[in-house]
What does this fold into?
Amino acid sequence: MGDPKGFMTTPREDWPRRPVEERVRDWNEVYVPGALLPIINKQADRCMDCGIPFCHEACPLGNLIPEWNDLVSRDDWRAASDRLHATNNFPEFTGRLCPAPCEAGCVLTINQPAVTIKNVECAIADRAWEEGFAPPRPPERLSGWTVAVIGSGPTGLAAAQQLTRAGHTVAVYEKDDRLGGLMRYGIPEFKMEKHHLERRLEQMRAEGTKFRTSTVIGRDIGAAELRARYDAVVIATGATAWRELPVSGRELAGIHQAMEYLPLANRVREGDLEVSPLSAIGKHVVIVGGGDTGADCLGTAVRERAASVTQLDIYAQPGAERDEDAEPWPTYPKIYRLSAAHEEAGALRTAPAADADARLFAASTLRFTGDADGHVRSLHLVEVDAQRRPVPGTGRVLPADLVLLALGFSGPDREDGLIDQLELAMEPRGTIARDAGFATNVPGVFAAGDAARGQSLIVWAIAEGRAVAAAVDRHLTGSSRLPAPIGPYDRPMTV
It folds into this structure.
């Protein structure tokens, strides 16, 4: 450890965000450019190099966090990059998008603010690109085996990169016109600028991975035909079947799923559209759902200059501190967190009637009402108790010209025909069934990521990609030296 007393003498200092008034006028990342490196060495010094580092257990990738913290504190950025990339294919993605369960598992969190693990990770990843520490790693020889990966989200990309580096010939099929899955069209630019994604894709192309965009497997290419072409197939299509809100008035115009709204805003940033057809400009916006997708909608609507934005969360407002009885360390606690989008909405008072920032907690939607033209104009809600039962006398009405449903996802979408054409076995909850080796009931076909695990975090998605790559490599060659950080039945730490 760089400084044995660092955790006692150095307070936590996070990567500062740009002023709200400045950042809501553009779509650039919210953090102050260049402000991380001057503070990161001292922050890495706060790592205690624990005898049993629970941050390892909290992160499904098994990141070697104390090791690269120590290397950063000593200014050995090349070695830090090597240790970081040993367990994580895309640290520039996780350093920006992951909610950092590793920090919840940091031993320092028992009685102090955690080490800024996520910021250190991001600093290493960015420095690696700046200094050329992450060159393409093409295989020395080809194995002769071929693999198709369906889906170019973090799971598909991680699996493809691992298999390509192992010497297999890999083609990634993506239904959209650009690569990246939700990282491309679901994650707003202010959370991760897309040049980070493009840079990694160019590295993968240089290593030999092939990409096929605008290709829907099951429609443009039959699933059986694809299976016959390749020695193995990895299904990493994600969980894109969104959950619905079956209440009166749902059929009114102006009520849309979050994943109808966010891709259009991203396409504006890509230059495909001048203005989103679902733009929030001048509208009263209500977001139903209190998770990260809802927060992404919130930040997007603020930048589109909505007249007002309110976010509804069915859960009660959490406290500022961990409930040690319900969620003891080192589990990931449900506490009050202020994302960049919520900070912006609070500062700009986008929802004057909200409990905090732009959120109404313990709020359940009863129905929608509209105008004579069939367009939504108001949302009727009621407060609920801990069992989600309505509290009498708490009904309210919010103006709503645009309603965005951010209620999560239940599993892979079956409309393209992929699942039915292959006759894949499914779990009762709507995900693809697989065995302990990530294999489906169809020989040579494997499933990984949200399509099989269900909606999860980006670190779990990348871990799944790495693990399924090892399973496919073993299936093709009889053995594998690729790392398999998790099994298909592993889950986050809980009580």
Summary: The first strand starts at residue 146 and ends at 150. Residues 458-477 form the longest helix (20 residues). The mean pLDDT is 96.
